[in-house]
Give the backbone structure.
Amino acid sequence: MNPLWMYASAAFVGVWSPLAMAAYPEKPIEIIVPWPAGIEADISARAISSVMSKKLGVPVQVINKPGAQGVIGTSEVARAKPDGYSIGSLNIAALVAQPIAGNATYKPADFEPIGLYSAVTMVLTTRKDAGLADLKAFEVSAKSASKPPIFGSYGPASYPAIMVHRMSTQNGWPYKAVTFPSPGFVQLESRDADFVVAPYSVVASSLKAGQIIPLVALTKDRIAELPNVPTLREAGYNFDSLLWSGLFAPKGTPKEVMDKLTAALKEAVQDPSIKELSRRINSPFFFVDPQQAKAQIAADEAAMKPVMDSLGLVKK
């Protein structure tokens, strides 16, 4: 469904309305990113904000509020005044997984989706000297080894950890999770981990140098620079993986404001600069409208809750 451009004329209708004073937007807009500066989710949000600024005619500025696996910044968006001047670039982990785990006071219903716009391309990798040609060989090795392979994890309720648990449960291979601040090549090289799931942009240089081996892409489509690496479904799993990010406003934001933000986002993802960034970091940009975003969130909640329950992550 295409977003509607709404241009409401402001008027006094019995009571005073803030829309009577000026058309939105009339001042800078803040996009809260609940992650540190410099990581892929931040880079994507900054690129989108720059294009949206041109579309909306006012500065659109990214404000980083990291901490507690995204909960701190996401909470601030939930508490923000619903006027369209403080919105958030939030992802499935902070918006869906953390409330299921009981780590957040907010819930997805506390937000209005402006639209989903990108996904982080994740890849499961292992050491080259492990001698594992593909994911099937990895699974056979995990099942037959005297000790389960160590998974370098971002944390129990992180999206990669939930995906690994779904894989392990479906195909019956064991693992032991160990948390690291930013798992990647360093943990594999030091043998602190036997496999990791990390953004392609984080491990790309190690992959190109042949230091690590990609086994499966946690994406809906194959990674352009890893054409021989299968997706989860191609590898025999019955689910997809999509670590999406989207723009969200606090619940109660006026429809006229939401429509303008949605229209600006929809245009922004088609900008040549965004297409170039997508090519450079090997992660997709797209547009999912508010209604489809709500359906995606509901489906993700339904899929993730039983997995997290089996991990003991759902607080009763």
Summary: Residues 25 and 57 are 8 Å apart (CA to CA). Confidence is low (pLDDT under 50) at residues 1-21.
